[in-house]
Amino acid sequence: MLSNPKIEEEKLDPRIKRTRKLIQRSFMDIIAEKGFQSISVQDVTARAGVNRATFYAHFPDKYALLDYSIGEAFRREIEQRMLNVCEFNLDNIRVLIVTVCEFIKNIHSHNSADVQYQTLAETQIRSQVYELILHWLEKIKTIKNCTVSRERAATATSWAIYGLAHQWAHEKQKSSAKTFADEVLPLIAANLGQTIKFP
Amino acid sequence: MLSNPKIEEEKLDPRIKRTRKLIQRSFMDIIAEKGFQSISVQDVTARAGVNRATFYAHFPDKYALLDYSIGEAFRREIEQRMLNVCEFNLDNIRVLIVTVCEFIKNIHSHNSADVQYQTLAETQIRSQVYELILHWLEKIKTIKNCTVSRERAATATSWAIYGLAHQWAHEKQKSSAKTFADEVLPLIAANLGQTIKFP
DNA sequence: TAAATTTGACAACAGTTGTTGCTTATCCAA
DNA sequence: TTGGATAAGCAACAACTGTTGTCAAATTTA
After folding, report:
1. What are phi and psi of B196, to 5 degrees?
2. CATH superfamily label, B5-192
3. For burial by CB atoms within 10 Å, which of A48, A139, A182, A199 has the most?
4. B interface mutation test: which of A134, A150, A191 has the most B CBs within 10 A?
């Protein structure tokens, strides 16, 4: 994300861009119709009008396609909120928590019974959250003199944010994402407080 | 784990127990030989001497079998260290962190390139860690008067422990699990400190 | 502009998956 | 001990997966 895949993509052969867009659009359409578990590569390529062998030239399997698609969708959410170009403060942490909550809730509403879909989605989202937090922490100069590194703090924080958001998304009677973010902010701040000084 | 699957299993038809044991043993043997990704249900049932249709009567697919097997193996580690029958303190948290580290390291050494295997394993391990921590927290009476519930703290803590252990296991030059546990204990304690008072 | 390279389509192939209905073997309860 | 219930074996089936080598079309490069 911070090593922008978009720049790399701008150099791609137009056929590659067109083929992947066709595949991805059909993929997301069919997921909305029948869920990830029931989808087949055959389904996707028939809908996309792309040969199966071509699919395999771009993606090893449907899991890789999901990984790629979720990654792009979440990256778009982050960029839309300008989180990738702002700096660390508790308000931005709150916005990040809300973003993750809304994204997981959206996924959950379509594929709530599909654990595999959700665990695959998790990996992409958590990775991007980690990169973002680490990027923010690296820009801060007022670091505490202790053994907890930025990497450790970013790891604990990104996994905790994801876990809490995931728990929230699965609750039947849930508060708003913003209320929830306020509720859990002390936990997240406690993590980060091990490596930085809050004002 | 706290609703003991072992008791339920003792009531099972002996043929079911025997069949599952055969399947599981063959499964673990073949994983050691050629990794999870390359394994097929056909492989497992041929090795086990069990019909494929019988396999499907017990497990929907190889992912479910992995889930079950990892769950059993990790449960055994927890019970072996008596973590399920002891109470909350920082030493036991440290032992839990070490246990998770060693377990992930063991998995990683066999299937390091297999992300799917690792994300499936994660779900089982994290669940059990969550149940254990929540169980410990529920026994403590000295709870802080704040909005962070035991469930939230257990969630943040279990995800953070898993994330940190996973990061450690993937490092090429890593400290011992015990050294690592000491290093990250402040982070974990900071999470838990949001809902309980430390002595 | 033309040659070189890359991408995608195609058909064929071997292998695996997941299910089904029927039969046999094993276990349990009376 | 026996009959009923359950578990497992079996073969067949339709469908899908993943790969391969060849050819045509599209793009890039010189």
Report:
1. -130, 160
2. Tetracycline Repressor, domain 2 (1.10.357.10)
3. A48
4. A191
